[in-house]
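Postdoc handover notes: sequence design on the structure in folder B. Input tokens:
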């Protein structure tokens, strides 16, 4: 396991063993701040009624819409006081062990770059808008904050097994693309959806994807799409359900019995699934993102 907390590494000047860099807030151009403002405004216009209350409350608490790309130092003052989490800037996707170690220590690694104007709708790499707008508000929720820390610790432990893909699937279908069933209706808590205008509507309203109740092992056996809307969304009834199901399960025996590759395709529906909506999968059948005239 890597060493922890080596902030300033004289050998590399900027990239330390934990990959943390300066956010370099002063270096953002007016155009880049403007990109944040456009994306923020768009999402704020579409998310009420779609995003879960916990996310909206987090957005409010952190003041992320006061103009331009937020300064991590300012976010951290508020976030630390709320749940003890902080955001740290990283230049790119970090290696798995580093990523897990940050989360286990309540540090959320966020890309410090922002997408170009030509890529407002979609970018595959996590930029500062995805990471900060999508993820950070949920870290103000105590249960969710604990879940991510536990995930990081679980990840560090998983390095001894050969099942990283299954653990990645858990992250993907919850932290990135999770839905929650609330008394007010189904809502989004996954950051990958919350930072995307088109997928926010698609995830809840389109007839194409499956919506299936969260089942830990089922989900860890399922493959997912990294470059297009999900074919299946998994739904929890509460963040407590998610927390308990994952924290109370000893993943050791689970890793032992998992197969080396995924058992289920992204579109699979099983006999044992508790189904909310069975998708038509027409979006994928019609070519997905490449052919998408209008999500269905
Ligand atoms: N319970 C898991 C383990 O035994 C760790 C974990 C907790 C993973 C929460 C994900 C989320 O390894
Ligand atoms: Co993300």
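Designed sequence:
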């Amino acid at each position: 396991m890597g060493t922890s907390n080596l902030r300033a590494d004289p050998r590399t000047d900027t990239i330390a063993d934990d990959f943390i860099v300066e956010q370099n807030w002063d270096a953002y151009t007016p155009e880049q701040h403007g990109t944040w403002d456009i994306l923020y405004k768009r999402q704020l216009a579409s998310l009420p009624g779609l995003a879960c209350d916990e996310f909206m409350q987090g957005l409010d608490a952190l003041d992320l819409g006061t103009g331009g790309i937020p300064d991590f130092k300012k976010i951290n003052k508020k976030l630390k006081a709320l749940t003890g989490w902080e955001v740290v800037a990283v230049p790119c996707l970090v290696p798995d062990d580093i990523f897990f170690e940050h989360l286990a220590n309540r540090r959320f690694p966020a890309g410090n770059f922002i997408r170009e104007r030509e890529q407002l709708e979609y970018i595959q790499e996590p930029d500062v808008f995805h990471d900060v707008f999508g993820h950070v508000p949920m870290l103000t929720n105590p249960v969710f904050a604990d879940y991510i820390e536990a995930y990081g610790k679980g990840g560090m432990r998983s390095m001894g097994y050969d099942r990283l893909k299954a653990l990645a699937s858990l992250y993907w279908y919850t932290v990135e693309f999770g839905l929650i069933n609330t008394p007010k209706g189904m809502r989004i808590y996954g950051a990958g959806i919350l930072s995307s205008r088109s997928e926010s509507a698609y995830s809840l309203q389109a007839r194409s994807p499956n919506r299936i109740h969260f089942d830990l092992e089922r989900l860890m056996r399922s493959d997912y799409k990294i470059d297009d809307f999900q074919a299946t969304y998994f739904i929890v009834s509460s963040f407590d359900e998610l927390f308990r199901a994952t924290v109370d399960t000893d993943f050791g025996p689970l890793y032992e019995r998992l197969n080396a590759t995924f058992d289920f395709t992204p579109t699979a529906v099983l006999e044992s699934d508790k189904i909310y909506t069975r998708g038509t999968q027409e979006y994928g059948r019609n070519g997905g993102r490449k052919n998408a005239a209008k999500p269905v």
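Context for whoever picks this up: Residues 150-151, 154, 157, 246-247, 249-251 surround phenylalanine (ligand 1) (CB under 6 Å). Don't rerun without checking with the PI first.
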